[in-house]
Amino acid sequence: MVASKFGRVAAVEQLLQLGSDVNLASSRGNALTYAAANGHKTCIRLLVKAGCNPNTPGSKWDPAVMTAARSGYTDCVRALLEAGADPDARNHAGKTALITATQWGHFNCAKTLLRFGANVNSMSATGDTALKWAARGGNTSLVRLLVQSGAEVNTPSTDATTPLMFAAHVSAACVRELISAGADLHARNTRGQVPLFWGVNSGEVDIVQALIKAGANVNAVSTKGHTPLFYSVKNGDDDMNKILIAAGANVNARDLKGKTPLLSAVQNYHVDCFKTLLLAGADVNLADQAGRSPLMVAVMRQFTVAFNDLLAAGALVNWKDSSGRTALMLAATMCSAAYCKDLLAHGGRVNEQDNEGVTALMHAAEKEIHCDSVKNVLLDSGADVNMVDLSGKTALMHAISYNKNLVCLRVLTKNNALNHQNTALVHCLESENNLASLDKAAVLLSVGFHPVIPEFYRPLLLQKFLLASTCRNKTYVWSFKKFILYREMEMIRLFVSNGVVLQRNGKRAASGASRYANIACALSKGHINLVKYLIANCYIFQEDLNFLCRSKSAQWDTLYRTYSAALGDDKDQRLFLTELTKQPWPLVKLAFIAVSSLVGSSPERAERIRGSGLPSRLQALLNFQGPVSTLPVREWSELKLAFDPLAYAKLEKQRPLLYFWPFGKEI
Question: What keywords are assigned to this protein (predicted)?
Answer without folding.
Answer: ANK repeat, Repeat
